[in-house]
Please model this.
Amino acid sequence: MTLKKRATKAAIVLLTASMTLGAPALAALDTNVPQSTVQNVSAKPNLKFTDVPLSHWANKYITKLALLGIVDGKSAGIYDPGSSVTQEEVITMLVRMLGLEQAARELSSFASDLEISDYAKMYVFMALEKGIIQYPEESATSGVGWGTRPASREWVAKLVIRAIGRQAEANELAGQATRFGDDGDISASTRGFINEAVALKIVDGMDDGTFKPAKSVTRAEMATFLSRTSPYMDSTDISGLGIVESATDKAVVLSDDYGDQKTFAFTADTVFYGYNQSTPAASQPFKQGNKLFIVVKDANVVYAEVVEENGKAANVLEGTLVNLDFNTSQIVMKSNGKEITAQIQIPLSIVDKDGKGLASSELVPGTVLELNRTGSKAKYTSIIVKHIPLNKTAEGVIQSVNLTDKKITILETDGSTATYPMANTVTYYAGTAGGDISAIKAKDKISFVIDTDVLTEMTMLAAYEPPSDKGRISDIKEDKNYLYITIIRSSDGKPASYTFDSNLKVNISGMEYTSFRDLEVDDEVKLLLDDDNKVIEAVVTNRALQTEFMNTVVSYDSKNRYLVVKNQAGKTVFYELSDSTVFELYGSTTTFTLGASNLTEGKKIDILSSSENTVKKISIVYNYQGTIARVSPLARTITLQVGDQYLTLTLGTGVGIVIPNKSNPAITDLIVGEPATIMLDSTGTNISMVEVSRSFLVYLANKSGSNRQLTLQDQLNGSSTITIPYSAKIYNMSGQEIPIDSMSNEDPYVLYYKGSTIEKVQAAQVSRGNVLAVDAAAGKITISEAGSAGKTLEVGTAAVVKRTSLSDTTLADLKAGDRIEAVKGQDGVYTIYTATAMTRKTDYYDTATSNLYILRESLGEARNYPFHSKAYIHQGTISYAPASIPSGKTVTLYLINGKIVEVDIQS
Model:
């Protein structure tokens, strides 16, 4: 047995040793078994432990593992179920369970500072080689007694999950809290393993609802954990899984995933267990279709247990195509969540569901297939194609779009109309740059990419512009039935009148909460019309609105609504307020009465007014947002640019300065050109706090939706954990708001800070590929993405190049042949990460974890590496799927942030 291609559940493959009892299969539930196919063995297996009677809760599990040769007694007839199992004993059991004991004996020893008993060294080294334990983890806790140290429950859960090839699933659950009452006591590094072990029903909690992660595992508990892994383990020389075709009191006929059938004999000493039974049955309880786990010794079944009541016949296999290789006569299918490799007969019949013949070239990854064969032949002879996924690039006009249900209907250029499901994350381009997909609407013209039936990418070609008219407002009227607006058209100078509703959308720069009552005669407007020539939106394109900041109230006459202020220049200005004047109190709109009550002498206010001194809005503010224009530490002043105006403000006493990711900042740390928010004291005159806004480019390693925690990983600076406040929104690269669980663990993100608070998270724009040419002076690089023709990126001369363990460099440091990831930051500056290259020989690809295992050159080197979902795997110009990478091949791996982004298979 090997660890190669371990699936979600182990594929049903009958025992690997030659122990069939004859080729003829028993007829279904035939009671007359040909004696020529049965060998009876009178030898009784020695599995009696006097301290584990039939009434003991773990008797079943200890019996199974004793028969498998995985556990031994402490002494003759004594198992000692209540004593603690040591770490080296756990590893010994796991290596035996995996069928690797002989391989362990042949393994060369490695130097290690782990203190291990002599007998256990070969098992520990094999566990290191297979990644069941990882040297950096264990060396951190090594020292006296490492091997003989009692194994804790959380440590055992981690090793068992790795042994059955479920590391990737555990990683996905690492950010989720367990269901146990003592979840806070569970180590963060083992939480995912425990979640996965519980999901697979390999481990469970205590009667009081806790897990007790640090509690030592007893020998009885260890036998239980290992026994429960049997449905997820590959067959060995003495054990395996099969579907019951027929059974008698003398023998059972089992079939495997390849249709092979074998007959196995029972003896008087065979131990039988029904489904979910804790005590042995007096006789075989098996029914046709049961999935059976058996242990065989001397060609006879010594242990048989029903692990699933309803198995599946093996002559028909349904799933989706991963890879079809006529050179090796193999097909790789994804069926029921796992990848299965099956043999095919050449020539192979390929037809659609109506019986029409198809060429093999028409089959693409994702094709829904049904494989068929006759009888117990190991090779499939025919394929019925149920659905070939659509893959295409096309153009069309949107007829309807629902971003909630993720469906879009498009009238395509060939005249056909089709509705497509949309991917959870659609890559959207507004021209050549990323845009906000929420802006798309019916009648927009787009190009789009369909990948395996799903729309994954969209580019705006021509946004639909509704009919419109432009001009100067000459009149606004309302009567009992209609509202009218009349403009003098800009195009011909003639009047034109349109109706509108009272909820008309009005857009006036510098004003919020607008309605049609904010429109004024002589405003220059653009009127957007519907198909009935009714105004649906009015955009004021020219109005002499201006904002005066930091006015000081001189007086306010509430009866006549006369306001007198002194502006920043010291000039006295008179204003008359009206019913349409809006008051904003510390960022929120308030009533006229409450707002006017704050117009007391000496109060600082901002005034938005028209050229006729008509006051549109009065703001009583406590902060200003703008760009730092000047910092004067000696004068203790900061000049802030707000729009096209400059405000010079004085620092108050005890002022607070907050700069993201900087401890104890001072006024001298403020940088001209950076955005900042300045908060005023209670008088509205002096600065009480300065909050600088900055953005940071980070890589996401893990996430926890329940507590909104992100684990960030940087190949240069290591990892860190942050919490995203609930007020902060998260967006994908196309500008769609997404939940935290939809964030990709593979991609870079930009964190937007205001002071110490994260306000927004946005996926960054990324390009990956092989550098073909560099023009450092022009700020351009040409790359090949996944073997495609050259693509030029205008990254600018300010682009930063990062190489592992080296200081930041410039574009001049890049050279042809570098593999890179170019990330565009919020400020438009590119950060370019170069991949680490290493040449090794391949061992195997693990489909369950999507990891490539290599033959490492030293013990401290990683044994396996995960793939990036968009990794480019190739030999020359020929692309490969990960599962098709040959074993024993010399390859060059290119890694960024610990993930494989490219595999170059050497010829």
Remarks:
- The two ends are 29 Å apart (CA to CA).
- The chain has ten helices and 50 strands.
